[in-house]
Amino acid sequence: MKFEDTFFSRGHRFSVGVEKESGRYYLSIPVSNRVVDYEEYYEIGADNFKLYQEHPESANEFVKQCRNRQKDDLLILKPGNNRGVAC
Fold first, then answer.
1. pTM
2. Which of 27, 43, 72, 81 is the most exposed place for a label (fewest CB within 10 A)?
3. Residue 75, φ and ψ in degrees, nearest 5
4. Nearest to 3 by CA among 34, 35, 43, 31
């Protein structure tokens, strides 16, 4: 999989982009475990992809739910047994 960010919100700590092989849109958040820092990628629709770029604050609730692991059904890559925590 090749994830390509098209927008990053430093203040809201998320990015959105396109997974190039499948064309799916995603929102990613930074996570960390004892070994490595990485990103978790959550699938979003085209409407939210556009909205979150134009109005980053509109993603706040979705990002909060991702950080609280309430949107795990939307993870593009399922986490392993050493899953990190949101940073």
1. 0.93
2. 81
3. -60, 130
4. 43
